[in-house]
Write the structure tokens for this entry.
Amino acid sequence: MVGRMLKHLFMPSWLMWKYFPPALLAEIESAIRESEMLHSGEIRFAVETSLPLAAVWRGISGRRAAVEAFGDLRVWDTEYNSGVLIYLLLADHDIEIVADRGIAARVDQTEWDNIARLMEQHYRAGDFRKGTFEGIRRVTELLARHFPPGTDNPNELSNKPVLLRR
């Protein structure tokens, strides 16, 4: 508990710019826009450097923080419940993928977890760009397989990555 609190305490919010500079964020936005042409899902990408110490003290996990971000970002607010959140919690080196109920009914959580673990491998090696784009590519493949685009495929959620600060 103390070790985790120290990681969150000493993980400044500006550090996210080291791993996700503006040029990379623009590339991520573009990759999400291109991805969503291949399926009827909606992808959001969010990065949080650390949680407030009170949340760490209460034992809030990366998964729970991701579920809260899913709600806060209204990823659930799509016509066919087809939103997916890729969430990174830098202090914990944690990646979580949360799928809305329309997608969760067809794609098992273990498939999302496998993608997250693959991304974590690239991140641990220091390659945030490759890990991010590999994750988006794999999410795209799953969504395209289970949720092909219809004739009307509106962009219901922003494609712009979100840098969370609580």
Notes: The chain has eight helices and four strands. The chain has one domain: 2-164. Strands lie at 42-48, 83-89, 94-99, 162-164.
